[in-house]
């Protein structure tokens, strides 16, 4: 439900009276909130859509393939644009997402004969194809101009679990001078698990019209973010020989990292509220180091969460139909653990500690900044039913020369198509639905370590999300 000044495609709800904080049903709603927070903190998160970040935040945005930062309709939209929280009434949203990524790679048999490093030829699929990802948000208006909100959501993640030792051929045979005790031999399945959750506390405020630019309504918002991430890796024993901290590369269980940053945003309405324009920026989330994996990630375990820039528009074509367009840029290039190339000569790695795993210029995955473009449509079919559809396209995150190292993080997806709907159960509550298909995409290439060997990594995804939204204190 939208505030009296409505965004395109929204239906105004009745005006609030009073500050709206005292009449919260504390025992019922707080118990529900605490329970859901505990579920979120223990959930497994594996997003890996635009790079490893989610394609959208909030179920209405996900029903339009990530478009909607200028059309706020639920409380988790603060991760698109916190300024939009002033357009919502007092409410909460409970979300649950079933995320199903299908990851695979193939290594070809065109490599040089041993002892050159190679990935065992063949096609391998990652196991564990289903993940449940919860989300929660609540909006608590202070008055008709100001509001605060809390939102908890999966920020990003990546998971691979192969049944084979992908890097088994990267080490010299056990008992040889280069591997006397076999400590560099990968004799177990290979995989990584990265999960990131974010808790944001938002303050948003109306600024009033700006007649000189034709702005009939505008607001700003700020969301300080607290983030937590966890990571583990296994089956990477051969890379211990290329690390500045060999005991902090693999098989150390889960390690946790904490940190935070801030997202700021602006939202304005023009053309007599027919057009909404929004812009927001999320700073890098500065995280503590993964101490147990300081020999794997560059700069001694440093693994921050990248900055994100968003721009979007929502145009009211008719009172029932809205057209949306969004642009997003994710700054992966600023995260050395991701951006540093692995296209480095082996001799340089051996002679220069800074280029080893865990060093200041240590080996990474070769990721680059990516742009994401989303378009969406929303149609209010009846008083109770609203339907949505959307499509998005993103850049490839790495160059082909880094392909066979990215079997650990096969973020190949570039295109998404989504459908969504909301249905009013009564005047205060709604159920919402979103389905997204991330189309299969293959990236072919090589790796410095495997010489002439070629191969590919591939992924496609299906994402199903449901939510329950309720206005409170009305």
Concise structural overview:
This protein is mainly β and 474 residues long. The chain contains 5 helices and 16 strands. Strands 1-3-4-5-6-7-8-10-11-12-13-14-15-16 form a 14-stranded antiparallel β-barrel.
Provide the fold topology.
Elements: H1 26-42, H2 59-62, E1 91-107, E2 122-125, E3 131-141, E4 146-161, E5 191-206, E6 215-234, E7 255-270, E8 275-282, E9 286-287, H3 298-301, E10 308-316, E11 321-330, H4 336-339, H5 346-351, E12 370-380, E13 385-394, E14 415-424, E15 429-445, E16 455-471
Antiparallel strand pairs: 1-2, 1-3, 1-16, 3-4, 4-5, 5-6, 6-7, 7-8, 7-9, 8-10, 10-11, 11-12, 12-13, 13-14, 14-15, 15-16
Approximate shape:
elongated
Distance between the termini: 11 Å
Query: Which class do the helix and strand fractions yield?
Result: mainly beta
Strand arrangement within the widest β-sheet reads 1-3-4-5-6-7-8-10-11-12-13-14-15-16
Q: What is the percent of helical residues?
A: under 10%
Order of helices and strands: HHEEEEEEEEEHEEHHEEEEE
Query: What percent of residues are in strands?
Result: 35-45%
Number of strands: 16
């Amino acid at each position: 439900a939208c505030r009296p000044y409505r965004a395109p495609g929204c239906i105004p709800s009745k005006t609030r009276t009073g500050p709206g904080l005292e009449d919260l049903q504390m025992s019922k709603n707080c118990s529900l909130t605490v329970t859901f927070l505990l579920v979120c903190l223990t959930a497994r998160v594996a997003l890996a859509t635009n790079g490893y970040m989610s394609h959208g935040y909030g179920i209405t945005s996900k029903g339009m393939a990530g478009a909607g930062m200028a059309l706020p309709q639920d409380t988790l939209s603060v991760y698109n644009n916190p300024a939009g929280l002033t357009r919502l009434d007092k409410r909460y949203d409970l979300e649950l997402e079933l995320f199903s990524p299908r990851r695979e790679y193939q290594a070809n048999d065109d490599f040089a004969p041993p002892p050159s490093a190679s990935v065992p030829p063949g096609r391998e699929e990652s196991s564990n194809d289903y993940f449940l990802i919860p989300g929660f948000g609540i909006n608590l208006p202070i008055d008709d101009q100001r509001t605060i909100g809390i939102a908890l959501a999966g920020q990003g993640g990546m998971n691979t679990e192969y049944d084979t030792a992908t890097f088994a051929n990267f080490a010299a045979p056990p008992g040889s001078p280069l591997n006397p005790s076999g400590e560099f031999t990968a004799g177990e399945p290979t995989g990584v698990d990265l999960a990131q959750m974010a808790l944001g506390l938002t303050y948003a405020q109306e600024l009033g019209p700006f007649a000189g630019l034709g702005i009939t309504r505008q607001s700003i918002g700020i969301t300080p973010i607290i983030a937590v991430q966890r990571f583990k890796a296994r089956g990477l024993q051969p890379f211990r020989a290329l690390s500045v901290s060999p005991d902090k590369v693999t098989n150390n269980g889960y390690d946790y990292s904490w940190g935070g940053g801030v997202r700021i945003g602006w939202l304005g309405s023009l053309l007599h509220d027919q057009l909404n324009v929004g812009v927001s920026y999320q700073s890098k989330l500065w995280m503590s180091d993964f101490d147990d994996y300081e020999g794997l990630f560059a700069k001694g375990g440093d693994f921050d969460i990248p900055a994100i820039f968003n721009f979007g528009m929502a145009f009211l074509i008719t009172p029932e139909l809205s057209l949306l367009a969004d642009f997003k840029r994710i700054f992966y290039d600023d995260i050395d653990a991701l951006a540093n190339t692995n296209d480095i000569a082996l001799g340089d790695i051996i002679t220069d500690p800074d280029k080893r795993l865990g060093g200041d210029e240590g080996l990474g995955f070769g990721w680059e900044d990516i742009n994401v473009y989303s378009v969406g449509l929303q149609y209010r079919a009846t008083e109770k039913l609203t339907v949505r559809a959307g499509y998005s396209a993103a850049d490839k995150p790495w160059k082909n020369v880094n392909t066979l190292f990215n079997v650990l993080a096969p973020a190949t997806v570039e295109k998404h198509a989504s459908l969504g709907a909301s249905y009013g159960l009564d005047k205060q509550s709604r159920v919402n639905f979103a389905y997204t298909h991330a189309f299969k995409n293959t990236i072919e290439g090589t790796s410095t370590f495997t010489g002439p060997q070629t191969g590919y990594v591939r992924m496609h995804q299906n994402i199903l999300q449901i939510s329950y939204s309720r206005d409170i204190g009305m």
